[in-house]
Write a structure and sequence with these properties.
single chain, 255 residues, mainly alpha, 10 helices
């Protein structure tokens, strides 16, 4: 196995571990890791490859949430259906943006994610079966979240979870479970769009997914034991995102 393959496995493991341990925001590091650690040569190639890995992990993680009854299917499907259109539009636009400019915008997004992680999530009220009047709001919010997720090639869980709570009022555990439907749909749409342009490294994506499965399993096992220190872990991870974002800005801004 080549050194780059080992790096892809390790980076996938780290992203999967962080996602299982602290939740949303973990996948935001996938693209910079593929660029600066694994060594993919092009920002668009890294984004397309990241989208494949994020989508695969989302579909895999959806299964236990669905079995536990944490997915509110009417709201999740309405949100995802509108968001797929947004993800296609966003990813089509993202492919046309200069790679360095896209990375600068990506770094700014990372700073926003770090702030949201530090603020934490607000809960909503239980609403298993949204009333028909809520579906336009779900559709509009889903389209916006999908467009951003597609443009940057991310899962967008940090946008989708609060978006579902805002649009339907569901409780947070249901929003987390339901968000995986949208994350999987958005990332898959982005991955297909990038793949049609030859912007996916399938070998690296497969290794990244394999590492993510192992890392996710380890993170899930440790999550309960480290529940009391989750706030501290969230802080450390948010600061790591800030550090990577600053590095990306320095690398891609030309003063």
């Amino acid at each position: 196995m080549l050194p780059a393959d080992l790096l892809a496995l390790a980076c996938g493991g780290l992203v999967g571990f962080s996602l299982a341990l602290i939740g949303g925001g973990g996948s935001i590091l996938a693209t910079p890791m593929l660029l600066y650690v694994v060594g993919l040569p092009d920002p668009h190639l890294a984004i397309g490859t990241s989208a494949v890995a994020v989508g695969a992990n989302a579909w895999a993680n959806l299964i236990p949430h669905a079995r536990a009854g944490h997915v509110r299917w009417p709201a999740a499907l309405a949100f995802a259906a509108a968001g797929v259109l947004g993800a296609f539009a966003g990813s089509t636009l993202g492919k046309r943006v200069d790679g360095h400019h896209l990375l600068v915008l990506f770094a700014v997004l990372m700073l926003v994610v770090a702030v949201l992680m530090l603020r934490g999530r607000r809960n909503g009220a239980e609403n298993r079966y949204p009333k028909p009047r809520l579906f336009p709001r779900l559709g509009a919010t889903g389209f916006g979240a999908g467009a951003l997720a597609g443009f940057f090639g991310i899962g967008g869980g940090f946008l989708i979870v609060p978006g579902l709570i805002f649009a339907s009022g569901m409780e947070i555990i249901a929003a987390v479970g339901s968000s995986l439907v949208a994350v999987g749909a958005f990332a898959s749409t982005t991955a297909i769009n990038y793949a049609t342009s030859g912007l996916v490294d399938w070998r690296v994506a497969a290794l990244f997914v394999a590492g993510g499965i192992v890392g996710g399993w380890l993170g899930a096992r440790l999550a309960r034991r480290l529940a009391r220190t989750r706030g501290a872990l969230n802080l450390v991870f948010a600061l790591a995102i800030v550090a990577v974002a600053v590095y990306m800005l320095v690398r891609n801004l030309h003063f």
